[in-house]
Amino acid sequence: MRYSARIAAVLAVVVAIAGGAVAVALTVHKQPAVSHRPHAAAPLKLTPAQAAAQTAAATAAQANSAAAARWIAAQVRQGLVIGCDPATCAAILAAGYTTGGQVVLKPGVRLPRRGSVIVATAAVRAEYGPRLDSLAPAVIASFGTGAEAVQVAVVVPGGQQAYRKAASKALTARRHAGRKLLADRRVLARGAIRTDLFSGRVDPRLITVLRKLAARYPVHLVHFGDTGPRAGKTIPFRMAEVAVPSVRGRHGRRSDLRGMEKLLRSQPAGNRALLLPKRLAHGIRVLQITFLAPSPV
After folding, report:
1. What are the tens digits of pLDDT across the range 88-104?
2. Residue 149 CB-half CA count within 13 A
């Protein structure tokens, strides 16, 4: 009997242990699976004012990009490499800039080489960050303000420090050339125009063709301009307006406009400007002489 009692007790313990294990197993099996997937953040709901501000910012950015594209097509010389985001590249081509090698700037694409033009939209600035300011420090035009602004800049190797040195040398050379032009007795420049030449604010290509004109005609300088909207302080004027002289001939006085245009169109390709005859509001007839951007550094 004692032996049977012991056997029964052992069997009872085994059954109890087995029952507990089954209970544990059932408990674990019934626990819900824990998901480790991150919950998608619910989209932030904008207030009407925030939505309106977001729409206005997008509209302003698009308008600035379109203005930059039109300016490039009209004011930047053909054949340059232009780096831009996809939408801006398309707008530049649509505006008439057809002979450049556009580079679509997107993740993984390196900035173009020296002398290239970069159109710095918000998307381009976000992708390239501080490298953009270092490699393309020469801002020749800017459209809009704030986060929606678009800058047109030229790639200059060596960063800001190298550009400052090059710009300083270029300024010194322009001052020397401007003062030499002022010393010519056939050149008439007064007030702000004289100051612009004296202080080196005039593109050297303009000074070269003005000296050519002065060798044959009296040069009455009326106006300098066209540095590009919101251009950097180191960017010189690329446009000059020169009063067109007249001479007395057999049939009375005649203009020397044709002779001036012929002379300027005969210049080498690098010194060939866009010519536009104009008549100012007070009746003075002028020849507008414009060189395309960017100016030499």
Report:
1. 999 999 999 988 788 99
2. 14
